[in-house]
Structures are given as C-alpha cells and as structure tokens.
Design brief:
Helix content: 40-55%
Number of helices: 14
Order of helices and strands: HHEHEHEEHEHEEEHEHHHHEHHEH
Shape: globular
Largest sheet: 5 strands, parallel
Strand content: 5-15%
Oligomer: single chain
Length: about 350
C-alpha cells in the first residue's frame, strides 16, 4: 500500500509534466529529471534552525541555443507560485548584479541594501553561466552551497524555498566562455544534456501558439518542502545499495598519491583517462535523488539497483574530469560511466 503523501507526490509529478507540455514541447525525460531535483531533499550546510529546509537540488542544463532551456525555470516557478528571476550571463556581469549592493540613501544618509535576484527570487535561472567571469560565478555558487549571500559586510540567508537552474552552451561553440571549475560544477545535483528535438516534435513548433501559454499553479512551494521530507523518510534505500552508490563513486577516482586516494578503479578507462573523479558530494546527492527517481519514474517506495544505474550519467557526467589525452583516444565521459556500471558488481 503506497503511503498517501507518496501517492500525492506521484500525482503532482504527472500533473507538472502534463502542465509543462503547454509551454515546452517534448523533453518528457528532461522534465521528469527536473522534478526529481526539485523534490529531492539534499543537505547543503549546517541548518541551525533544524527546519529541514536546506536544499541544494540545483540543476545544470547543457545544450545549444534555442532548445528551450530557459523554459524549465519559468515552468517550475509558475506551478509552485514562486517568484522567478532570470539573469543573462555575459562577460562583464558583476557580482553585485547577482547578490546585490549597498548604497547610501541621499535623503537619510543611511546605508541601504538593494538585493539582487539571487537573494530576492525563489527560483533563479542563470542563463549561460559559462559566459560570466569567475568572480561572478563564485558569488552565485556561494548561494547554491551555503544558502546565503554576502552584501557588503553582512551575510543574509536565502528564502526557505529556493531553487537554482544554470544553463550552459557547449564550451567549444564559441569565444568568450569561462568553463566551470570542478568545484563549481560539483554544486549542481545533476547535469542534463538538452538535445535537439526529434523531427516530429520540432515540427509542432511551427504552429505552436506561444501567446496562449498559461500555466496554472499546482502546488504551494511550502508543500514541496514538506513532500521532500516525506520522500526522504518513506522511500526505502537498502544499506547494500547505499554501499553500491559509494563504490560506484569511488570507482570514478584513479589511483592518485597527491590526493591520497590509494585505491585502484576496477575500470582501466578510469585509470588511463580520468584526471579527477567524483567527490563525496556525489555520494550524498545520488542517495537522495535515487529515492525520488524510484518514486516518480517507477512509482515505487523502494530503490532498485537499476534506479541507481539509470541516474549514473546525470550525477557523474559533470563530476568526472578527463585528461587532455582522452579525446585523442576517442574516450568520452559517457563511455567511462558505462564501463563503471559494467565493472562494479551489483549487490
């Protein structure tokens, strides 16, 4: 018998995907993955209030221009009735434009704080994050990890419900990009590659009436916070499968005396081509996401090994960094992840 609040979550997921179809043609798998992140309760930093509202289920979307990446933020904000802000990445974007600034009010002589979109919006979309300079990336990433922003000398907490989406174009497409660092990419729960639509789906865009797009609020944002906690508590992840996740993450790391990782991966591809494997944050994130994946995609209150395997490329693809020689040998990150899945024994 399914727990009633878990059934409520499944129904909500299906309603969101259906409603999102009114604004974004196709991409059902990608929409489902966005919901998985939205509904995952992922710890970020110490929560002194113990309200279990710490959530770093941030989403990284990678794809060429024009495939509808920005709509993901618009849709999630509309269905949760959350405030939404979009920031366009550009080479001269300053940290103050993201977090805010302090200024003296000429009428009173007092120092006032003007908050930027990261502090004032509940769902923020940073478009083309790899086009903004590193100091501005850092300002954005502080909010993702610590759920705080620093304006002047004061630090402020983000709102209880906050969700960040960043988009990036493939780096090799143009000049003026600042590739995300390993630490920056690691802040995002998953990365989704948003491809071109299949021809039959793209054909629908020819006559799609964007003027008539209306999205209904489906769930209060406060309820999303509550449902995250229910999923964490009620969906079962066996201890053996938790160890399986840990082994998979560990297998992404090559033997490296400098980092004191003195284990050899079961994958020769990892040992020969990977410079840096996944961090412990991948282990934390994977264990939370897989519960939501099993519930939303398969309507189960228990995680199976295949759930872990299905999520592998979304959790690992932006956390496994290949050496420069990998491309010359025709090795891709997806090939490395597939090899790991094949070689790490399933419990």
């Amino acid at each position: 018998m399914m727990h009633p609040e878990l059934q409520e979550t499944i129904d909500l997921h299906q309603a969101i995907v259906a409603e999102a179809g009114n604004a974004l043609v196709g991409y059902d798998t990608e929409k489902a993955l966005a919901n998985v992140v939205l509904l995952s309760e992922i710890p970020t930093t110490y929560d002194k209030d113990q309200k279990r509202q710490v959530n770093a289920g941030n989403l990284l979307l990678r794809g060429v221009p024009g495939v509808g990446k920005t709509f993901f933020g618009v849709i999630l904000a509309a269905i949760s009735n959350a405030t939404f802000a979009r920031l366009q990445g550009r080479a001269d974007l300053q940290p103050t434009e993201i977090v805010g600034f302090q200024m003296i009010n000429p009428a009173t002589g007092e120092l006032t704080t003007e908050f930027g979109p990261l502090a004032s919006a509940e769902i923020i979309l940073l478009d083309e994050i790899n086009r903004i300079p590193l100091k501005s990336q850092s300002a954005f990433l502080e909010g993702l990890q610590d759920r705080t922003v620093t304006v002047g000398k004061a630090t402020y907490e983000l709102k209880p419900f906050s969700f960040a989406i960043a988009t990036m174009n493939p780096v090799e497409l143009g000049q003026g990009t600042f590739p995300l660092s390993e630490a920056a990419a690691d802040r995002f729960a998953i990365m989704i590659n948003v491809p071109y639509l299949p021809p039959a789906e793209e054909e629908k865009l020819v006559s799609f009436d964007f003027k008539r797009v209306r999205l209904k609020p489906l769930v209060p944002k406060e309820r999303i916070i509550e449902l995250r906690a229910v999923i964490s508590r009620e969906v079962f992840l066996h201890e053996a499968l938790a160890k399986y996740i840990r082994r998979l993450v560990g297998a992404t790391r090559p033997f490296n005396a400098e980092t004191e990782w003195l284990h050899r991966s079961p994958s020769e591809l990892v040992e020969k081509t990977v410079d840096l494997g996944a961090s412990p944050r991948a282990t934390i994130v994977w264990g939370r996401l897989v519960k939501v994946w099993a519930l939303l995609l398969h309507q189960r209150a228990e995680v199976y090994p295949e759930d872990i395997q299905d999520l592998a490329r979304y959790v690992l693809s932006h956390r496994v960094w290949l050496g420069p020689h990998a491309a010359s040998h025709g090795v891709s990150v997806d090939m490395v992840i597939e090899d790991l899945i094949d070689r790490v024994p399933v419990p």
